[in-house]
From TrEMBL:
SUPFAM superfamilies, A to Z: Formate/glycerate dehydrogenase catalytic domain-like, NAD(P)-binding Rossmann-fold domains
Keyword DNA-binding attributed: no
Lineage summary: Bacteria, Bacillati, Bacillota, Bacilli, Bacillales
Protein name: D-glycerate dehydrogenase
Organism: Cytobacillus horneckiae
UniProt domain D-isomer specific 2-hydroxyacid dehydrogenase catalytic: residue ranges: 5-319
Amino acid sequence: MTQRIFISRKLPDEVIAPLKENYDVKMWDKEDRPIPYEELVKEVKDADALLTTLSENVNKELLTAGNKLKIVANMAVGYDNVDISSAKDLGITITNTPDVLTESTADLAFALLLATARRMIEASEYVKNGDWKSWSPLLLAGHDVHRKTIGIVGMGSIGKVVAKRATGFDMNILYYNRSRKQDAEDELGAKYVDFDELLAQSDFIVCLTPLTEETKDMFTREAFKKMKQTAVFVNASRGPVVNEKDLYDALVSGEIAGAGLDVFVNEPIDADHPLLKLKQVVAMPHIGSATGETRNKMMKLCVENIEAVLSNKKAITPVF
């Protein structure tokens, strides 16, 4: 009997063509919206493999409904949308897409830092709205980035590449991580400090930590109060590591200078969200890995993981 694969988002035909040669492939074809959860539960019931994105809630109910399910290939480096414990109990392989998105995500994180520091989005809208009437000495003056201190929270592979980008700006590099990263210290001159010291000393705080029970609400009002009033906060990891109300209050009260955000607690974020009303906030729609080259690599890695597991081989990038 031909094994069946369900793909939860519309992907290019050329990417899934290898799967169609040997498997029965069905794909959600509504490009403009995610698959409803109830529909995904229905589709998983006779699927041998799922290809999902971080938008899908791969919980115990869903995994249990997949009586034949052998693999869930999650198209993201993070997998906080997947119930890993239940997957282990059920013997279902979970894979992610590490490494292939590292450089692109680091580029976006550093771009957010620059855009927020130099008020680039605000300045662009200023011109487009016809508000630019003359030049003045402090018109839209932002903050220098070169030779400042960057504090990286989460010195994984993406964090190391952000640190590498920072060396090109002659920045002093601090980092906080669960464990010391000697290679980052030796190769990039990064200095390990505790969380509070990083908050107090950094001009730019870049959050790249994975979402876990320990990191949820890691950035609260207490954390923002420890930052410099001129500090810029950047989050390119996961939304729930930040208490958004506390961030809003810190920005409005002037406790920090600005925030560059690629991720939010609820995605897509409501257009009426208070953070989006602030000029000192640069907001992106979770596009850290969104280049054509990188997204295609992520898709292909998912396909390769599925092919491996369905042909009784070891997954390429299992998460456990």
